[in-house]
Design brief:
Layout (H helix, E strand, L loop, with lengths): L5 E5 L4 E6 L2 E6 L2 E7 L3 E7 L3 E2 L1 H10 L2 E5 L5 E5 L7 H12 L1 H29 L6 H18 L7 H19 L23 H23 L18 H24 L8 E3 L5 E3 L1 H15 L2 E3 L6 E3 L3 H14 L12
Parallel strand pairs: 1-5, 2-6, 5-7
Antiparallel strand pairs: 2-3, 3-4, 7-8, 9-10, 11-12
Helix pairs in contact: 3-4, 3-5, 3-7, 4-5, 6-7, 6-9
Length: about 350
């Protein structure tokens, strides 16, 4: 079993990372703040004005430690990786699958069943946990609509990718229409009226976008680790600069990992209105302090133990990215009959 290593998140503006022996050193204004053995890392994520020495980047590439650069607000800028691991035959088969509309639609259908089922579980969990503070009838109606979407996807009939995207769009609309009901604390400061991105227009969307970026980084790294091409997907089609397969796999994990974390941060008052500000363009941005709180809680969430529905064994949440990527690779190689999506219970 793959050991969960740590991801180093660097948020201090003006920080510089360099190699010192077999360690990564983080400095600000030439003052050493942190020194971490590189063998204890699986990735480095730099936010905003953070620099890295060429020697460190080369060493990280050699050791298989991905270095990702994001804007201060979490938008992807660039990533430095070493040679793609795995068998070239696996990637060639992945490309054949992606070029086949029927196979692509079949895999995409699995992703969407997992996504919608997990969205339904999230709202049902919230209804149970906050039974006296939540709109029960609204939640029940949404759960029924999501169940209907799952039933449609499970029909023994072919679907085109466009038809699948239509079903997914309806389910996503129902889910996000209910999302505000899942927020039971700090309602004045955290109101959700719909998904907005690039830029996010409210505090909740700002949180969602930021955590989605963290999940995307981990999914992309897992896919590359098992030898898959993260840019060639099945539901999301090829587009320059887009990690389409990572976006595909995120569909089943987004609500379980990201949405639940955002709801917990708000409902437990781990973040508040002081952690956000509005720019002149109307974009909502978070403070460095809020960002650090989220990163700490995200890492804690990855250490939680869950029962994997396919493996039938307890694993840490942070291993889900790697295991799902490994299962996808096994399916593409023909080792298993289908891709088993992650269904949270």
């Amino acid at each position: 079993m793959k050991k969960i290593l740590n991801t180093l998140y660097v948020t201090s503006q003006g920080a510089y990372l360099n190699k010192e022996g077999e360690t990564v050193v983080v400095s600000v204004a030439k003052e050493k703040l942190l020194q971490v053995p590189i063998h204890a890392l699986e990735g480095i994520v730099c936010f905003g004005q953070v620099g890295c020495s060429p020697f460190l980047l080369g060493h990280c590439a050699e050791k298989g430690v991905a270095v990702t650069f994001l804007s201060e607000n979490g938008y992807f800028l660039a990533s430095v990786n070493g040679l793609v691991s795995g068998n070239v035959l696996l990637r060639r088969q992945q490309y054949r699958f992606a070029d086949n509309p029927d196979i692509s639609a079949s895999i995409a259908r699995n992703f969407l069943i997992g996504k919608i089922a997990n969205c339904r579980t999230v709202i049902q969990r919230a209804r149970r946990d906050y039974s006296e503070r939540i709109n029960q009838s609204e939640i029940e109606e949404t759960a029924i609509r999501l169940s209907r979407s799952i039933d449609i996807l499970k029909r023994n009939e072919p679907f085109s990718l466009e038809e699948l995207r239509g079903i997914e769009g309806d389910a996503a609309h129902s889910y996000f229409a209910t999302f505000d009901h899942l927020i039971v604390q700090q309602k004045k400061d955290f109101q959700f009226k719909g998904r907005t991105r690039r830029p996010p227009k409210d505090n909740v969307n700002c949180l969602l976008s930021f955590v989605y970026t963290l999940v995307m980084h981990d999914v992309r790294a897992a896919l590359e680790t098992v030898g898959l091409d993260s840019c060639v997907g099945f539901l999301h089609r090829d587009r320059p600069g887009r990690s389409s397969l990572a976006l595909d796999m995120m569909e089943e994990l987004r609500s379980v990992i990201a949405d639940r974390l955002v709801l917990s941060l708000i409902n437990r008052s781990q973040v508040n209105f002081k952690g956000f500000s509005v720019s002149e363009t109307g974009a909502v941005m978070m403070t460095d302090e809020a960002r650090k709180t989220i990163l700490v809680e995200y890492q804690k969430r990855k250490q939680e133990e869950i029962m994997h529905p396919f493996l039938k064994e307890k694993i840490k949440m942070g291993l889900v990215f790697y295991i799902q990527a490994l299962l996808m690779a096994r399916y593409i190689r023909g080792d298993i009959d289908g891709y088993p999506v992650f269904l949270w219970k």
